[in-house]
Amino acid sequence: MVTIISQNKWTIRLTTFVVWALAASSLGFWGLRLSANTSVAPLKAEVTQVKFDPLALANILGANPAQALQATPQVSLASRFSLQGVVAGAPNGGAALIAVDGKPARPYRIGSQLEDGVMLQSTNGRQVILSATTNGPALVTLEMPRLKE
C-alpha cells in the first residue's frame, strides 16, 4: 500500500508542475500581447511607372534597330473597312453601308469622306471604290460578301 501512495504522490506532483507551467506560459503570453504597441504604421510602397522602350529591348536582344522598326505590323487599308450594303444609282447618286474599324456600319454617299484621306469614289453592283480624291486613283476596292446558301 505504501508503494501505491508513493506512485500517486509523484503523479500528483508532476501533474501540478505541468498545470503551473501552462498557467505561467499563458500569463506570459497574454502579458506580452496586451503590452505590445498596437499602433503599427502601415507599410508604404511607392509605385513607379516603368517606361518601355521597344528599340532598347531589341538592341539588348541583338536585333538591328532598323529591323525592329520594320517588324511592327502594318494594318492594311482594306482590312479596316467592311462593305455591308450597296445602292448603285445614277452617276454620283449611289450610296454604300460601310463599317470602319469594326464599328457599326454607317451610310455614305458618293463623294463623302469616310475618314481623312479616304472617300467613297463610286459604286458598281456589289462593289465600291474608295480613293483619296473624287478623280484620283483607287486606294481600295471593297466587295460585298457572298450570300451563304
TrEMBL record:
One of its GO terms (biological process) is protein transport. Keywords: Cell inner membrane, Cell membrane, Membrane, Protein transport, Transmembrane, Transmembrane helix, Transport. Its main location: membrane. It comes from the Bacteria. Gene3D superfamilies: 2.30.30.830. It is found in: Cell inner membrane. One of its GO terms (cellular component) is plasma membrane. Pfam families: T2SSC (PF11356). InterPro entries: T2SS_GspC_N (IPR024961). The chain crosses the membrane at residues 12-32. Residues 44-132 form the Type II secretion system protein GspC N-terminal domain. This is Type II secretion system protein GspC N-terminal domain-containing protein. It comes from Polaromonas vacuolata.
